[in-house]
Amino acid sequence: MKSKIFILFILNFIFSIGFSSNVYNSNIKLTTIANVETFPNRFLKIGDSKQSETIQFKILLKQKNLNILEDKFWDISSPKSENYGKFLNEKEIDSIIAPNEEDIQDVLNWLVDNEIEKNGITCYSDYIKVEASVKKASKLFNTKFSDYISTRTLNRRIRIDGPAWVPESISEKIHLILGLSDFIEDHKKTKLNINRNLKDDSMLITPDVIRKYYGVSDEIGTNLSNIQSVGSQHSVYSEGALEYFEQQYNLNPSRIITNNMENCLPGGCDQLEPNIDIQYLSSMGNNITTLYYQLTYDEWVLDWALNVQSFVPFPLVSSLSYGFGEFDVCAVVPNNCSSLGIDSVGYINRTNIEFQKLGLRGMSILVSSGDEGCLGFYSSSGNCPLDTSNYCPLGGCKYTTTFCPSITISLSNGSECFFPMGYGNDTCFNLFLNSNYSDSINNFIESNNDDQCTTTIDRDSRNNPHFYTSCSCDSLIPYYDEELELKIISFEFDPEAGRLFDLEFPGSSPYITSVGATQILSMTEPEIVCSITTGAIIVSGGGFSATQPQPSYQASAVSKYLENGASTLPPSYSFNPSNRAVPDITLAGHSYSIANSVNQSSNECPCELSSVDGTSCSAPSAGGIFSLINDHLLNSNRSPLGFLNPLLYQAAIEQPNVFNDITVGNIKCNGVYCCEYGYSATPGYDCASGLGSINYQNLKDYILLIKK
Q1: What does this protein's record comment on cofactor binding (predicted)?
Q2: pLDDT tens-digit map of 107-117
Q3: In 124-147, which positions are buried (b, 16+ CB within 10 angstroms) versus exposed (e)?
Q4: Are 173 and 339 a contacting pair, CB within 8 Å?
């Protein structure tokens, strides 16, 4: 739980200046291209931006022939196609979708005419990257810029304050602009969990354990053109910890390249997540050159997909361990996702187009499915009946069960906090920061404490709150605060009051391979789904997308799942069975041994080993395994794997032993709380474990047979 101390910190950041207004010719018709009337409530506006500060933004131009692009993507990615694996180069892709040269030139002229310096403009085939002072950007967009700070990360960013205007003739050529009104959080949704004492009863996962369990043996990469990569959001791995990790587990020294990586550790950025990524991608993809691609703190997945296309050498496998809830993508774009001229689906769709372009060039993209089950935590509505048989699943609570697990806190503006299940979302988060509301909750608890009833906020081993009462829900006394216009009552489940589930994007994209997490109990036992109910400290993500249609490659597998696993499914109103199902595959994601610098602000040793859980462990490990298969293909003069999913789902039908089927476990919890509804592992494909985990030798043999 964030402390109120951050408010005092924020008060120190006050920037006071004016702004320049552009005076467009009165005959030029202007239109709004972006707008920040309100901003996500996890940000605070702390003052006007300094005129001299430099900002960067990307103007994404409207592309053409997108239907042709997608047709080619599926054709080249389908093993049954005669064009399978016949990838395109960057120029060939540009020839399909790049805007007309006249449109690009019009936008460039508009920039130069408004005093944007030419050396601050970089033009790509379908977008333009601009670097300019706040003063000149204010004039360009006829707007002002303000400084905003995240209450979760304390990172400051410069964004517009109000509408941004462009001539209508220019707006017609622009899809969206990144860097003006988007609010990207500098935290990962696939959250990292640390267990430093290594006392967990499960097996400790090391590179050697993964290799032996999945049959990878001692293979190493030998092809120098084989590149794998990690995408990182403003964080940096510890070079000392990587060397220490390799020494501890007798690994060959890795070959790492970067995109001018900034060492942000002294400023407080994260090293733990990138340490997982770099240590397990490079150790599983042994001896294969690994690119560490670092984004800035206010860039996200669409920026990564744009940036990595121009990197040389081009990586053939990329692992991403970051995500936002599909509904929480609206936090990227304020005002209900409309300020970029598009909604959240539009932002996602542009990202999917860039994923297609990467796949057309031969890249395999593997993404963590999430660590919050099917429910979500930060993006959860909380509207799910808690499972009282799994009260306090992380342990440490005073009580072992409760007679009424949830309450509803209703505000006059119509918003509701379903406590504690919705504790991580913005509504509940901000409500508990307000001392007046907190006092009202305490008053509700006190009013339900007497000789007949005990009511309190219980706390688990990680200090998460749980609602305990010895009274039944219908006997709890409601509380009303007329001054605050607040009402607190016992929770009654209403399907219309809020969604039950929330998948993470980009893990829900049909154009990537989503990777879930399992637990390895021993070298001779089958894996189970990773969950807090079975000793893990995360829950593997999965379910059905709310925004992405179901791709044809998984239609047969999902159809059988819906039929054969019907008794294990949640209520039919809670998911769309015609949409994208997640994950695609799974791999061990519990009790990984990683190395970190003892001083988290340093990239040097002394270092120590820690145990971590997460789909942010399974995705890079799987990425390294597929890089080894790419190495075999390249060494035999065959094309790389490219987009994996059509191949994987075909393999599951034609040669099922390429996967280890996971049949035990469920994803009904979100890492803190457990719901009565969710998805369970079943024979065959399911939303808890996908197609299963990888049998390397069988999968490699199958692929080498298919990729002639």
Answers
A1: Binds 1 Ca(2+) ion per subunit.
A2: 999 999 999 99
A3: bbbbbbbebbbbbbbbbbbbbbbb
A4: no
The structure's pTM equals: 0.92
Q: Is 616 a catalytic residue?
A: yes
203 CB-contact burial (10 Å; exposed 0-12 / middle 13-18 / buried 19+): middle
Rounded Cα gap, residues 326 and 338, in angstroms:
15
- CA angle, 422 as apex, 614 and 148 as ends, to 5°? 80
- Residue 248, token pair as written in the block: 């501890």
**How many CA atoms, within 13 angstroms, populate the side-chain half-sphere of residue 312?**
2
- Tokens (6 digits) for 20: 């320049």
Inter-CA distances, 250 with 247, 254, 431, 606, Å: 5, 12, 50, 18
- Of the candidates 13, 14, 358, 342, which has an alpha carbon nearest to the alpha carbon of residue 180? 342
Distances (CA, A) of 606 to 194, 244, 266, 270, 602: 18, 9, 16, 17, 10
Is position 277 annotated as part of the catalytic site?
A: yes
From the list 195, 198, 273, the residue with the least C-alpha distance to 237 is: 273
How far is residue 508's CA from residue 525's CA, in Å, rounded to a whole number?
30
Structural tokens at position 432: 């508990």
pLDDT tens-digit series, residues 256-287: 999 987 787 777 778 889 999 999 999 999 99
Question: Whose structure tokens read 């985990």?
Answer: 693
358 vs 435: CA distance, rounded Å: 49
User: Is 477 part of any known ligand binding site?
Assistant: no
In 268-368, the DSSP E strands lie at 289-295, 317-320, 324-325, 364-368
Q: Please tell me the total number of residues recorded for the chain in this structure.
A: 708
How far, in Å, CA of 700 to CA of 686, rounded? 23
Catalytic residue among 138, 509, 540, 616: 616
Task: Tell me how far CA of residue 175 lies from CA of 104, 128, 172, 315, 509, in angstroms.
Answer: 12, 12, 8, 27, 20
The superfamily CATH assigns to domain 193-375+500-706 is Peptidase S8/S53 domain (3.40.50.200)
- Collapsed DSSP state (helix, strand, coil) of residue 700: helix
Residue 419 CA to its chain's centroid (Å): 24
In degrees and rounded to multiples of 5, residue 227 shows phi and psi of: -120, 135
List the catalytic residue out of 161, 273, 298, 460: 273
Tokens 């430099």 appear where?
54
pLDDT tens by residue, 32-45: 998 888 887 778 89
In the three-class reduction of DSSP (H, G, I as helix; E, B as strand; rest coil), residue 130 is classed as strand
pLDDT at 393: 95
> Has 662 been labeled as part of a binding site?
yes
Torsion angle, alpha carbons of 564, 74, 695, 213, to 10: -100
Q: Which helix (H) or strand (E) holds 622?
A: helix 615-635
583 C-beta neighbours (distance < 10 Å), count: 33
Q: What single-letter DSSP state applies at residue 252?
A: P
Specify whether the CB–CB gap between 490 and 448 falls below 8 A: no
CA 273 to chain centre: 13
Among candidate residues 271, 386, 337, the one with its CA nearest the CA of residue 38: 337
Kind of pairing between the strands at 513-519 and 585-588:
parallel
Residues 282, 287: Cα–Cα separation, whole Å:
7
Q: CA nearest 166: which of 186, 147, 155, 180?
A: 180
Q: Residue 705 in 3-state DSSP?
A: helix
Residue 10's pLDDT band (cuts 50, 70, 90): very low
3-class state of residue 191 by DSSP:
coil
Amino acid at 231: G
**What residues does CATH 3.40.50.200 cover in the chain?**
193-375+500-706
Q: Is 262 a catalytic residue?
A: no
Q: Where are the alpha helices (DSSP H) in 117-192?
A: 134-141, 168-171
Measured between alpha carbons, how far is 181 from 162 in angstroms, rounded to an integer? 9
Pairing of strands 127-133, 121-123: antiparallel
pLDDT tens digits, one per residue of 386-419: 999 999 999 999 999 999 999 999 998 888 999 9
- Please tell me the predicted confidence (pLDDT) of residue 271: 87
